[in-house]
């Protein structure tokens, strides 16, 4: 049978199925094995189909649609296939919008399935009615509303193709409830076949010439489009040619941070000296990063639209090449395909930039040195202990806030797929991401780092971790305020704090109320033993760090 033919053989008897059954079958045929969401009455036929579908798709019932959508986004980020989220219409869809925004900014494949009012009621402002095409058009690759159960295989196929091809991203499928309950004998479509992009021989020859003329080259890597094999190939290439590598925003897990060629990351609160080195480079090879706001320090490290540096930009989506910066050489390619070609280049003469690479590495080592004069609770000691104790394949998740600056600066990621964090800068991301990661990789250690404000935006999902008996460790940095906003207040309106103080529960007691492990520590010296106890508890755990609220970042204090 041709892969593009309907899955049902031509001589097979027609089978009437509900729209919900057709949808679930299409998802399963495209490799979906789990869905995250909050059930609603507009999508009841989907949940009924899951009952009789047999093994294949597991539904994870969440406590809020926002966190459900972030679980789906994180699962897409981890697996490389679209994360699936299903929510009810109106309020459910709007709650879940945050996950769509994160998937859009993070280039994560994701499919959100939304129930809709019956077809005959549309346009009357029926109960919880929303026009999803207008609402989500600016943060998705496509919004489709299915008009008939006969269209479901086509729409599911299009959703998977669009979510994964080019620059990956989110897709929304809206299903009127009468479409889900109607029946059809339509055949399933074949699984999506994703087109692959790669560099041409002429482009690689031009790249080789540019590299050979460089005196101060740098490679900037984003975490889009890699495979473990490609990451190993890349590690070997940069080691063999001694080229310095910088991680784009929250892409620190592409190259082993212990490598002599790894020289830092371009993140919020990153090294000023590193940013000056990017400006001083004469060639930038950018792989899998779209050169967004944070990576470029608000578009200041490269001149817009024509950088002073020779810019080679490798990215899977053609629409991003030249969108902000005009590259010397634009290559539309998935990172893994490009690295396959990169590995075939002849050995480069690295002597012109040997000192440049060595100085860049020494600067990183000095930047990561912990301060001897740190007062009170030193969060860098906590991160250093995690760095020392966690296995190379341990997954670390986080949301947004000043606490992440310590993680970016002092933790050394060693393996692809171990940094799960939102480029969108969304608070409340770390806990749902940790749940998705532990469900995907139950045998790997999963640690979530969250601020007190960040955790409280998703705290209800700790119940989900307990319900599914997921032994994640959640480390809450409790300074009793929205620290990053307080920092900006002190910069712009000194000594005039407003709206940033927080009242928090006893987080350790909260964990124990769920039957989980909970402990609070008031000094970094007590953290190692607390972590050991949490890891041995073999159930969800919270460690509350009661830190010095005056220490806003490693380098800034009130």
UniProtKB/TrEMBL annotation:
Residues 399-544 form the Thiamine pyrophosphate enzyme TPP-binding domain. One of its GO terms (molecular function) is flavin adenine dinucleotide binding. One of its GO terms (cellular component) is acetolactate synthase complex. Residues 210-342 form the Thiamine pyrophosphate enzyme central domain. PROSITE patterns: TPP_ENZYMES. Keywords: Thiamine pyrophosphate. It comes from the Bacteria. Residues 18-132 form the Thiamine pyrophosphate enzyme N-terminal TPP-binding domain. Transmembrane segments: none annotated. One of its GO terms (biological process) is isoleucine biosynthetic process. Belongs to the TPP enzyme family. This is Acetolactate synthase-1/2/3 large subunit.
């Amino acid at each position: 049978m041709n892969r593009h033919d309907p899955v049902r053989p031509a001589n097979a008897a027609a089978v009437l199925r509900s729209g919900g059954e057709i949808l679930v079958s299409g998802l399963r045929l495209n490799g979906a094995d789990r869905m995250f969401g909050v059930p609603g009455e507009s999508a009841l036929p989907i949940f009924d189909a899951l009952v009789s579908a047999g093994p294949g798709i597991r539904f994870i019932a969440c406590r809020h649609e926002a966190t459900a959508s972030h679980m789906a986004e994180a699962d897409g980020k981890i697996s490389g296939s679209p994360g699936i989220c299903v929510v009810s219409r109106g309020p459910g869809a709007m709650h879940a919008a945050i996950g769509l925004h994160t998937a859009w900014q993070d280039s994560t494949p994701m499919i959100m399935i939304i129930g809709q009012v019956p077809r005959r009621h549309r346009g009357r402002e029926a109960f919880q009615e929303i026009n999803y095409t207008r609402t989500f058009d600016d943060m998705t690759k496509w919004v489709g509303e299915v008009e008939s159960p006969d269209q479901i295989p086509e729409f599911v196929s299009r959703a998977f193709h669009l979510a994964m091809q080019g620059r990956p991203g989110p897709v929304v499928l809206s299903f009127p409830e009468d479409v889900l309950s109607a029946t059809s004998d339509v055949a399933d479509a074949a699984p999506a076949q994703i087109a692959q992009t790669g560099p041409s021989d002429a482009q690689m020859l031009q790249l080789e010439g540019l590299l050979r003329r460089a005196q101060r080259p740098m490679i900037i890597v984003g975490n889009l489009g890699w495979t473990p094999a490609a990451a190993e190939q890349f590690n070997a290439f940069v080691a063999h040619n001694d080229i310095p590598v910088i991680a784009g925003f929250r892409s620190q897990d592409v190259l082993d941070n212990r490598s002599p060629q790894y020289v830092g990351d371009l993140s919020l609160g990153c090294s000023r000296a590193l940013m000056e080195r990017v400006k001083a480079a004469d060639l930038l090879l950018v792989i899998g990063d779209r050169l967004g706001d944070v990576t470029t320090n608000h578009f200041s490290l490269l001149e817009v639209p024509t950088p002073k540096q020779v810019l080679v930009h490798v990215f899977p989506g053609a629409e991003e090449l030249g969108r902000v910066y005009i590259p010397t050489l634009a290559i539309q390619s998935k990172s893994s395909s490009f690295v396959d070609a990169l590995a075939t280049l002849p050995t480069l003469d690295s002597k012109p930039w040997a000192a440049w690479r060595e100085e860049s590495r020494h600067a990183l080592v000095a930047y990561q040195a912990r301060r001897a004069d740190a007062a009170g609770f030193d969060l860098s000691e906590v991160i250093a202990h995690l760095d020392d104790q966690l296995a190379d394949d341990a997954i670390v998740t986080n949301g947004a806030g000043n606490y992440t600056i310590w993680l970016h600066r002092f933790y050394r990621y060693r393996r692809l797929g171990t940094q799960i964090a939102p480029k969108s800068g969304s608070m409340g991301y770390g806990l749902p991401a940790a749940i998705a990661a532990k469900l995907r990789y139950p045998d790997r250690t999963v640690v979530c780092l969250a601020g007190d404000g960040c955790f409280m935006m998703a705290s209800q999902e700790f119940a989900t971790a307990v319900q599914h008996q997921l032994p994640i460790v959640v480390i809450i940095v409790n300074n009793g305020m929205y620290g990053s906003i307080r920092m900006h207040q002190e910069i712009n309106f000194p000594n005039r704090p407003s709206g940033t103080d927080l009242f928090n529960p006893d987080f350790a007691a909260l964990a124990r109320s769920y039957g989980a492990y909970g402990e609070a520590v008031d000094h970094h010296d007590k953290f190692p033993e607390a972590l050991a106890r949490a890891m041995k508890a073999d159930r969800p755990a919270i460690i509350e760090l009661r830190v010095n609220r005056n220490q806003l970042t490693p380098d800034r204090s009130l």
